[in-house]
Fold each of these.
Amino acid sequence: MAAKPKLYYFDGRGRMESVRWLLAAAGVEYEEQLFETAEEFENLIKGGKLMYQRVPMVEIDGMKMVETRAILRYIAAKYNLYGKDLKEQVLIDMYVEGMRDLYDIIMFLPLSFPEEKENLRYILEKATDRFLPVYEKVLKDHGKNYLVGNQLSWADIHLFELILMIEECKSDVLLTFPKLQEFKVRVSKLPRIQKFLQPGSQRKPPMDAAGLEVAKNIFKFSKAIPKDTYKLVNVWDKPVFIDKVNV
Amino acid sequence: MASKPILHYVNGRGRMESIRWLLAVAGVEFEEVFLETREQYLKLQEDGYLLFHQVPLVEIDGMKLTQTRAILSYLAAKYNLYGKDLKETALINMYTDGTLDLMLLIALSYFKPAEQREKEIELVVEKAKSQYFTVFEKILKNHGQDFLVGNKFSWADIQLLEVILMIEESCPTALSNFPLLQAFKTRISNIPNIKKFLQPGSQRKPPPDDHYVATVKEILQF
């Protein structure tokens, strides 16, 4: 019998949360090794388990996979959440990559003090002006229940996760997006998603001050994210500061 | 007859270069439309070509594709450069995500103020050697094969060559401690379509210069 996938990360959302969501949506049980100290992380590095000395890392099907995107694509393909052909796959990729830009700046928000308030405003502006309208239009244009190919895919799971994250910043952010509201309700009713949303699931809560301290100690980032790197998210595929931390 | 793919970008490497490499190596002829002014870029946006207001944009097979990684994965799969099964694809993704990250760092160093640039490039070169070349040297050593994945030429090999050449532009001796990568570089460079792409007159773009940096800043307003 195949061993369960095992996730190596700290006890928080970070970059691993999308993996947790996708595995949950695919109905795949998994284990987690959540480290709490810098030593534990360093031991992982010393043990040669991390290709680029970074996490997330997922042990799955005999591989030690790193790079979040690579991990997510593997899971999506394996569990039929990646479209039925190459054209659907590229749409899913395009939609997910678009979401990632917004996802990343929300994820890094706690690290961006003392400019948090300004960055929050920036995030919400980007969400409502640039990102959410795209997906509202996709759903409106084809009138189907899911983003791609009239069936649930990785793109839908990721969008749902992102919507919940934005709503944690501003609860009524979907006010002017009726299709996305319907979408959100529809996806939240899927049995596996419902289960993952229950207390006691492996879903992680938003980062709080204590969690941030733990993450800082483990990954040794001490500085706030420089203000102008936030602006670069609309230029490059990923925020530049990602490399300064090994998450 | 299928029309040629059309690439929309600034006349320089940036995020489009890896796409040019992949198309060239796959033997696919392509056209390029170069963005020179902000007006052109805004027009593309207004005409609905840019899903997230971003370039690269590649028109191919009836689609307007944006998001570099989405485009690259599509091309790799379409031209059989993506491994023979899910596990090989997973390895290729792991390797190319790494090399793309490294190339992004290189690209971004040119946008630093002039006085910081040299230092930044030095750091990137160090990182390339310690975090990336070391790893790829080991991969080649462990399996002893000519190519990174599955004993067959793939997108991962193209990317690795691309980033090696880029780093060598800043540090010609970057591979001095990596004998297998040196052999790899020679071997991959001699593949006919790659050899052709490395010749003057191909659609390969030169390293960023001040004009390129200024154009990008003007067009994207940062």
Amino acid sequence: MSRPQAVTRRSAKSEYIETDTGNKISRRARIEGKQNIMLAGKSVVMAGAILRGDLHRKSDRPAEGGEKGGPITAINIGRASVISTDCTIRPPMRMSRGQMTFYPMRIGDNVFIGTGTHVSALSISSHVHVGANCVLSPFCVVKESCKILPDTVVPPHMVIPPGSVVAGRPARVIGEVGEGWGQGGGGEGEEYVEGGDLRALVRSIK
Amino acid sequence: MAATFPYTHYACPCSNLTTPAPTSISAKRASLIPVDAPEDSTFNPHDPRANYSLSPLDRLLFCDECEEIRCQRCYGEEIIHCPTCLFEVPSSGVRSDGNRRSSSGEEVEETYILQCHYCDWSSLDIGVHFSKPTKITEQLAKQRKSRVSSRSPAAGAQPLSHDETFANLATFYKEQLSESGDPQNPYSNSPYSSPNNLARIMSLYGGLSVNALKKTREKPQPMREARGAKEGMLMCSFEDKAANDALLQSMQTLDWANTTTTGQRLSAPANNDARLVDALWPVATRLRTRKCRRCRFCPQYLSYPDPKLKVGNLRYKIRVLALNHIPRLSIRSLQTSCPLPNPAFCLHAADLQQRQPDIQPHITRQYILTIRNPILEPIRITLATPTTTPGRVASRVTILCPSFTVGPAGDVWDEALSSSTTSMATIAPGNGGRQAAMESLTGRGADESLDRQPEAGKVWERTKNSTSVVLEIVPGALKSLPGIVPKSETELEEEELEEGDDVLEVPIYVRAEWEVSEEHDDAGDRKGGKRIVEADGNVKKELAFWCVLGVGRIGEGG
């Protein structure tokens, strides 16, 4: 990796917009429907990522006066999660009774999503590490502390049990994560550990 | 073997490679040549058996009582509570789908099928559908039974099905066991300990009926194997030519993808004979269990997950991880100023293609070895490594400072407070005007830190709970230089590189010593007062293990 150039105070616009809660969103990320996307804090959305917050469930009750019930969240992302470059996050949809309905997608804390993956999962729990160029098909469910190796294709409606290592096309559970998975990283000077605290990684992304 | 360099693997003391067998056992075995103490015998990471004792840090647990590392083979597993089910879906990628209603609309006949969303197989392909979406395994079993029984009368004298054969065999073996088996059991409750005694006493007093006496006098038959289909033997015959021919014919016409793999055949007893994919029967997914781990040598729990199944996260009641108890080593090259990006955390597509460059042989390289101390006391570390790495390719390794101390790990608060101060040392200079100004004030410029030369006997860098020293490595060449004398066949064979020989791995023996004050020494208390208490009330503790550092791959170009 090349050394970062010295940035002076009066530089051009930086790559990332930082929000009050510490989220870093790249200016080159393509985000639709940003009012329907919740980022819990200290999460990163990198360049080229596509977040489709405009695909959300239409409210069934149009004329309720002021009781719309608040904004409909299409995508919920937890703390310290990293969505790498060129990912696509699209809420899963299902055709039922002739109508297309979208379901809200929930991504947990400390989730690392590798570059170029397509995520349409119904939910991804915390401490999950997803490799590069994966495909998580609509309505799959990834439980906590899983590791999804690069280039896997998770078929629709698959439930990945907690603590499993998953690979292949179609994805199969090939093992379990170690006992100490997710522990021990993120301290000063230490390497980032898969499934561990990603706050240090978030801080280092500039 | 990790695919990415650099890595660190720790050796568990369970194997003979790391710890010699205790002398009591080795004295009994004539074949076992007594091995010297571990300090004298080197751990060879290229040994084919070494793979079984090395593990990365996240797979290791630590036993408090024995104060040893425990690897996956050393912690026995117990299944403590009920299996957890996969919440709704019976098997991966296959789900129960669909209501089919009759077109007339009067009768609503709901049927369900299994369907795979990945390859579009559905149970209609084998003609199976279900009347209700629950208890699929039961419905499958019923349909299977009816299918098998409807097939067998048609074909005449069919061999018994798998389940029946298994049942027959099981009853046969049980009978054999009871017939030939232990005479001890009936006598264990009586005051007469041996059967001879009992027989003698009984013969004195008139004894049992004739039959019982005969039975006890008969020599027990040795256990025999099953002899017919009734007893559970499955015979394969070559007489059924027609079926075999038909099978061969279909295997010729259909392609490879339509024949079953061994894995598919072994997935269920129902599938053991299936040779073609369309003869396979759906199998329910195995349920998963939560395992608790205990040390093999002392019955101490090392990892005990919370029995509450519906808890969202995997919570543990007890979890003793190695990385919280042993000093952790990591290595990086001196030339790169910041740690290499971890390939698992590739953020950009371009980084994916980047292969780590090969190490050139015969060029001295310097590496920084960092030891991190997770425990609350300062430890004294002694490192040892053989001068040349064992294995096919010999590289020379020198540790510039083999003996040093590492500070204690503080509490979480200490770390958080001090991280702001120590991070100053690692930020690359020139980032912002303020940083450069600070450095010019303190006189430490960017150039000075780069020009630091590693010195023998001196520690490279010291932070609160970690110390770094420098390792000098001269990688060996993969092929020896061509000599004047042409090599014989055997020598050429010996020089063939096997897989993994070009990986530069350095075995290091790490010994950590520290002192614990007496009241904090819980493990010593439990062991029962055999420890030696120093004059100032401290107990000396020591931990030693082998560790293998994977540095990189050696390239050609010697």
